[in-house]
Amino acid sequence: MLAILGQITLPNWDALLTKDKKDAVVRIISFGLPKLRSVGDVAVDWNVVTGSGFFIDKNGKIITNSHVVRNGRVIAVILPGPSATNFKELVDRLYFAEVIYDDPDNDIAVLKVTGENFKTLRLSSRDSLSQGEPVAALGYPGTSYHDNQLKVMFGFVASDKGANPISLNMSVNPGNSGGTGFG
């Protein structure tokens, strides 16, 4: 990235965020145990958490945040695609996952779905980030079960690469948790 007289040259996001990279990012819906909303009330809270994740190998391993799946009893993973206009379109992209690693202290979890030949992303080192560098975050913000559109948010690295965690100055909403970023 170049900073010339206060102007920043931004990367060519269309070239960086190829279809293969976007296809590696998934939507996660974690269903916890139902609980009553109040004593004597028959309505239940299904304890649903939505988030994002991404494949790290072609055989179905996905990284996400621990808080997305920690209390999940049933974890659904939805592959990228258009918003579901009918049930069959959604079911064709639906997988059920198991948690194979969970580290709540570092808020990271690894899921596994059955399948193969998934599009993947590589993890990179924090050493490759610099304060002020432009970044893009990919995920599925929002809580509507019908909106399965991948969203891209743009911002900059706000903290030094030695900070833990590294801060970004972009809007991240519920549902983005566990998604990926590019810089």
Can you describe this structure?
The N terminus is likely disordered. It is globular and about 55 Å long. Strands 3-6-7-10-9-8 form a six-stranded antiparallel beta barrel. Helix content is 10%, strand content 34%. It has one domain: Thrombin, subunit H (Beta Barrel), CATH 2.40.10.120. With 183 residues, the protein is mainly beta.
Summarize the structure.
By secondary structure, the protein is mainly β. The protein is built from four helices and 13 strands.
Write the layout of secondary structure elements.
Blueprint: E1 3-4, E2 7-8, H1 13-16, H2 19-23, E3 25-31, E4 35-36, E5 44-45, E6 48-55, E7 61-64, H3 66-69, E8 74-78, H4 87-91, E9 94-103, E10 108-112, E11 134-139, E12 151-156, E13 180-182
Antiparallel strand pairs: 1-2, 3-6, 3-8, 4-5, 6-7, 7-10, 8-9, 9-10, 11-12, 11-13
CATH class: Mainly Beta
Low-confidence stretches: 1-5
- Largest sheet, order of strands side by side? 3-6-7-10-9-8
Bin the helical content. under 10%
Gap between N and C termini: 10 Å
Our count of domains comes out at: 1
Our estimate of the beta-strand percent is: 25-35%
Number of strands: 13
Count of helical stretches: 4
Task: Report the radius of gyration as a whole number of Å.
Answer: 18 Å
What would the average pLDDT be, to the nearest integer? 80
What name does the CATH topology carry?
A: Thrombin, subunit H
H/E element string?
A: EEHHEEEEEHEHEEEEE
Reported for the largest beta sheet, the result is: 6 strands, antiparallel, barrel
